[in-house]
Specification:
This protein has 285 residues and is α/β, with parallel strands linked by helices. It is 33% helix and 18% strand. It contains eight helices and eleven strands. The strands form three sheets. It has a seven-stranded mixed sheet with strand order 2-11-8-1-7-5-6, sandwiched between helices.
Amino acid sequence: YQGIPENYFNSLPIKTFVKVSFWLYDINEKFELLKIEAKKPSTWQITENILPKTEIVVLIVGESLRKDFLHSYGFPINNTPFIDSSPHIKFNNYISVASTTSNSLSKTLALSRNLVNYEPYNNIVTLAKKIGYKSYWISSQEPISGHGSPIAQIALNTDEYFFMNNETTRKNDKDLFKNYLAISNNKSSPKFIVLHMIGSHPAIGDRVEYQYDEYLVSKEISYYNKSVKNTDAFLGQIYQNLKSTKKSFKMIYISDHGLGINSSLQISHDDNVQESYNVPLILWG
C-alpha cells in the first residue's frame, strides 16, 4: 500500500470493498481451518461400558426460527398445534450462540468451551458413534456452498449422510421427511439421526410456495407465520412415526438462530437484535 494516500481507503465504495474482501478472507480462512480440525480423531472417553438405553435419537435442527413467533412460546396465533398438544419439555431460556447458521451450529454441535475455543472433531455425531449408535444425517440445505458449508464437516462424520439440495436441485422439508422414513424403516439399531431443515430461511416465500393462511401486517410476516406452521407439522410427522415404531426414542428440536424484522417489515439475518438469539429448544420422548 506504499504511495497510496491513507484517506483513499476511507472513500466509498473502496472502503466497502476492502471491508468485504477482508471479511470473506477471514471466513475462508476459518473454514479451511475447520475442515482440518474436523478430520481429527475424536477424544471422547466413555466412562461406563454400557449399551445405549434409547433405541432411536432424532435431533431436528430448525432454521431461522425465532422463539417469539411460536404459539407455544406466546405468539397470539395458534401456529403450533402439534407442540401445544404433545407431552414435551420446553426450555424458555435457551440462547443461540450466533445469528448465522455456520457460526451457531459449529459451536452448538461440537464441544465448545467458549466462542473461540471449540473442538469440531469432538462433536455430537462422533459422541453418538462412540457410545454405539449408527449415525445418519439428512439435510435440506446445500453441503458445500452458502450457509451450510462448515456444518457439512460435522455431517461427514456420520455413517450415512445425504444432502438433498445443490446448485441445480431445490427440495423442501416435505422431501426431508420422505428420506427420513427410509432410515426409520431400516432394521439398524440403535440409531442417531440428524435432520437439518431449511425451515424458515430467507427467502421465506420460497419455503411456503408464496402461500399463507392469515395475512399478518405484511406478506413477508405472513409467509413466516406459515413456515412456523410447516415446521410444527413436520415435527408432528416425525413424532408420530417414532411412536409407531414401538421403540424407545428421544426427539430434540432446536433452531440455529432467529431473524430480525426491519422498518420495511422485511425479515432477514440481523446480529443486532435480541430475537436473532432467542430460539426454541424442545424435547420429546
